[in-house]
Each structure stands twice: as C-alpha cells, then as structure tokens.
Design a protein that fits this description.
heterodimer, A: 85 residues, mainly alpha, 54% helix, B: 469 residues, alpha/beta, Rossmann fold, 7-stranded mixed β-sheet, 12 helices, globular
C-alpha cells in the first residue's frame, strides 16, 4: 500500500474508533477542519510509526508542521524518500 | 474596634495601579472592563452571605470565575477553583474535603443541587459589598489536580504565594495584552490571569468550544502580545493553518516537556517573539523560566549555596526538587502526604538527566503519564482493563509521542493461557472489545492507544508489578 493510502486508511480507522464523522478527505483540506483533535493526530502518528517505521515529527533537523492533509501526506512521503536515500 | 490586618487582596492590588483604559477580561462572548470589575457593580445576592465562607466556584465559563476571584479574595475564607472539565460526580467529594458552605454557579445549578448548599448565581455580574472578614488570615485559593483514582486532589495556595513569581517589570510595556490557552482555573492559566491583573492589562480567555483557527483570529484581533500554553496547545496552533493570525512577541510553554522541535518550530513561526519555557506545577509553583531557546535547563540553575536564590533547585535521586515561597502549602485531602518536606523542599516527581551542561526532562517518576497536559495514572487504566472478563492482569505505560508528548499503551495477560486463548485473528477482535470497554468508562486520552497481549508480566520483589522507572 502506498504511504498515501496507508495514511488515509489509518485516518478512517481512528475516526471510526473515536466515533468521529469525517467529511471528504482531500489534499487541500486544513487539518483543523478534518474533525481530528490533538489526540486523534497523536494516535495517527503512533500508528504510522508502527506501520511505516517513520516519525517525521521527531526528525533531528527540524519539523515543518503540516497544515493540510496534503502537507501531512507529503511530510511522510518526504521522510520515506529521505530514509531510502 | 480594631479590624484585623490582612495582606493585600486581589482588589487592593488591582486598585493600587493606574488601569489602562482598554484593560478588560474577555472571552468569545463578552468583555468586562477591569474598572467595572473593581467597582464591583454587580453581585446578585446578599453580600454578607459570602464573608468568611468556603466557596466553590463552579461556573461553566472562566470569565465569571475571574470576576468572582476579584470580588471575593480577601472576603471569603476559601475559594475553590473548579475548571470546566471536572466531572460533576466529584463535586460532592470536593465540597466535603474543602468544607464548602456556599456555591457560586453559572446558570444550571442541577449538577450541584444534590449538595444541598446555599447557591449564588454569578452570571458575569457578581458584586460584593464588603463586610469586614473576622480573621486576619488571607483567603485560601484551592486548586484541583488529578489524583490516582481520577478524583481531583485539592491543593492549598494563597494570593501571596501565587503572585510571588510575578515581576511587575514584565508588564512594563504599555501595549501588553495577555492570553493563555489554559483554563485560568488551572495553575498554568491562573498565573497568566494574575499577571494580567497585577499589570492592569487586558486578558483574553480561551473557550473549549471555540475552534482553534477562530480562537487564533480572536487573539489577533485583540492584539495579544504575551501568550502561554502547553507544548500540546502550541502544536495544535502550528497545525491549524492560522498561526499567523496573531503575532505575539512573548511565547511561553509550560505544563509538559518542551522539546527542541517545538521550540524551534515556534521560533520559526514567530520570528519576532521571545520563546521561553517555564517549569511549573500546581504543587511546586513556578520553578524557573528558560529563555535561551534550548530544551531542558542549564545545570548552572542548580542552587550552589542554600538560600541564595528565591527558588532553590536541587536534584535528588535524579528527581527535581524545589524550595520557594511559591510552593503550595498542602493537600486538603485526608491521607495525602505533605507537599513540602520537613526541610521545605517539594519533590516534583519529574525525572531529569544531566547531558553536558544541561539537565533534560525524562518524564514522571511513578509512571504518571502526561498526555497533552492531562495526567493519567496507570493504575486507574489498569483497573478498568482488569474489569474485562478476559483480562487476568495488565500493565499500562507511556509511549512517547511527538503530538501529545505521550500516549497510553497497555500490556495485557489474558486469563487461562493456552486454554481458550484466541488465535491471532481473534486477538484483534478481543483487543477491540477490551478497548470498547475502556472507551465506555475512561476519558478518551486515558484509553490505551494499543493493547499488546503478553504471556506474563514481571512482578518486583515488593509484590507489585514491575514498572519501568
């Protein structure tokens, strides 16, 4: 599964577990309007660390905090590319 | 007859200064000028009723409590500050422990009615006519903190101790506007409330129902210059897309470990701002403020010789200890250990490690888990897990997390191993079932983010579950 699909599928699983209704997810959707709170994002980041072995939020060379769903996915795609390089 | 002399109360401190014309406390709905609050234009009850009382301040909004604090400090014997997220099922315990004999509420008295105590409605219009209190003792300010069983513990302070960390010079600039993401009825938020009051400056309150981006735009409109919150609050700001709606020049973090990533990200988002992180807790008060932009704190802060600083800092068994006039007196709850040891030091329970010339924070001794500024006692979560019919025993621990600092995870031993333990696919279903049981009982941040089934858990020589330190 691609990083994008992994992230989107984890978002949906967490939303279901936390009883949250999500609207349509698209790259320009601001995270603040996604229906997720800090706890949901914390759960998502933990799941992705388990699934993908990536934790771009703890990168040593500074984090650019994502604002949209697209930013969030790109953060993980870049981290994966960086790791592969 | 001579009236007893009391230390200055909040009204006196507020009244002693020239208030700025724009000095007001505001929330999303209302703004109340400090001059108006001082004039006490508005308390809807027989004022004498509140003199010498032990009063539970249980208003849904922070603004009503702010006005009540101004009105009642120096008049009431005791003020119990009840944050908006306290479960009403604890009101009875809180009232008994603090010997409450009057409740100031904000509108819906239903959850409080069973306490059968006199009630006063404080709808942003609380006026107190002063009858002179009968003792010279300052009003006690009681703050709530989370206890092992989930029931709050009551921590006793007074205004002198709470305002001891505040230097008037910090408010010297004429355009200072304070704000905080905290509830001002918690220690971290109360510090900001008092800074604004002692500086006679405006204060912009938070509201838990307001979306982050709307909140940030409101902070921008109010021209907030000084603002505080936990690292989790600040991560939420950075991920809101609206961080640039305000441009503070003083950004303060406290209440959780501030790592280098969040300090750097905030400095990048607010290049003009001084970004500092403070060590503070409800029991120990404000310890120190770190202003060099680096995580942890300089080893040079450790007190070299006794009594050479207002706050003395020492490390005992890798744990931070503080002694200062800012610490709380004690817990009101029966059976709690003293907050201050015989030598006056408060053991914070926060573990530190020396790395080079700095101490960095490792987490809590005794396993208390800090999830986005909210404390989780592993034993409370384990008790819920262990209620599930399939669970023999469980161990709850922290897992580090870059968004909330930590998350809760659980290791679970199932009953009757080898006999009826489900296979791998069934285990997923069982984990979901156990988690559903947790969600029904615990607040969301206390629910384990992951359950791992293990064959056994290690038991220490004390007969207790071995907990990693």
């Amino acid at each position: 599964m691609t990083i994008r699909l992994t992230i989107l599928s984890e978002i949906e699983k967490i939303a279901a577990a936390q009883n949250r209704t999500l609207g349509a997810l698209h790259d320009d959707l601001p995270l603040s309007q996604s229906g997720f709170d800090s706890l949901c994002f914390a759960l998502l980041v933990a799941r992705l660390e388990d699934d993908l072995g990536l934790d771009p939020f703890s990168a040593a060379d500074g984090v650019s905090f994502p604002v949209t769903i697209g930013d969030f996915i790109k953060l993980y795609e870049d981290a994966a590319a960086h790791q592969a390089a | 007859m001579l009236q007893p002399t009391r230390p200055p109360n909040l009204r006196a401190l507020l009244g002693a200064q020239e208030l700025r014309r724009d000095a007001a406390v505001s929330d999303p709905l209302t703004s109340v000028g400090l001059d108006e609050a001082l004039a006490g234009a508005n308390l809807a009850c027989d004022p004498a009723d509140l003199t010498d009382r032990s009063i539970l301040l249980a208003t849904p909004d922070q603004l009503s409590t702010a006005l009540a604090l101004i009105a009642l400090d120096g008049i009431a014997a005791r003020l119990v500050l009840c944050p908006g997220d306290v479960d009403p099922k604890y009101f009875g315990d809180i009232a008994r422990t603090a010997a409450v004999d009057c409740i100031v509420h904000g509108g819906d008295p239903a959850p409080l009615a069973s306490l059968d105590l006199p009630m006063v409605k404080a709808d942003r219009t609380l006026t107190v006519a002063a009858r002179h209190p009968t003792t010279a003792r300052p009003t006690e300010w009681i703050l709530l903190t989370s206890g092992t069983t989930g029931a709050p513990k009551l921590v006793r302070h007074d205004l002198a101790g709470l305002t001891a960390p505040i230097r008037s010079s910090a408010n010297a600039q004429a355009d200072t506007v304070w704000a905080t993401f905290y509830d001002i009825r918690r220690y971290g938020g109360l510090q900001i409330f008092l800074r604004a009051m002692l500086g006679g400056t405006p204060l912009v309150l938070s509201d838990p129902t307001e979306p982050v981006d709307a909140h940030l735009r409101r902070l921008g409109r109010r021209e907030v210059t000084h603002i505080s919150g936990t690292p989790s609050h600040w991560r939420r700001v950075l991920m809101s897309g609206a961080a640039s709606a305000m441009s503070p020049r003083y950004v303060r973090l406290s209440g959780e470990i501030a790592d280098q990533a969040i300090l750097d990200a905030l400095q990048a988002a607010y290049p003009r701002a001084a970004v500092s992180h403070a060590y503070a807790s409800t029991e120990a008060g404000v310890g120190f403020n770190v202003i060099d932009g680096r995580e942890g704190f300089p080893a040079a802060l450790i007190t070299q010789s006794p009594r050479d600083a207002e706050v003395e800092i020492r490390i005992v068994n890798d744990t931070l200890q503080l002694r200062s006039p800012r610490t709380a007196y004690d817990y009101l709850d029966a059976g709690q250990p003293p907050i201050r040891a015989a030598d006056g030091f408060v053991d914070t329970g926060d573990l530190v490690e020396l790395r080079g010339d700095r101490y960095v924070f490792l987490g809590r001794r005794g396993g208390v888990i800090n999830v986005g500024g909210q404390k989780v006692h592993p034993e409370e979560v384990e008790a819920v897990l262990n209620q599930h019919p399939a669970v023999q025993v469980s161990l709850v621990q922290a897992r580090r997390n870059p968004i909330t600092g930590a998350l809760v995870v659980a290791d679970v031993v199932l009953k009757a191993p080898g006999a009826g333990v489900p296979g791998a696919t069934d285990q997923t279903g069982l984990a979901d079932e156990i988690l559903a049981h947790c969600r029904a009982t615990l607040r969301p941040f206390k629910v384990p983010s992951r359950i791992r089934f293990v064959d056994s858990l290690q038991v220490a020589a004390t007969g207790k579950l071995a907990r990693p330190s």
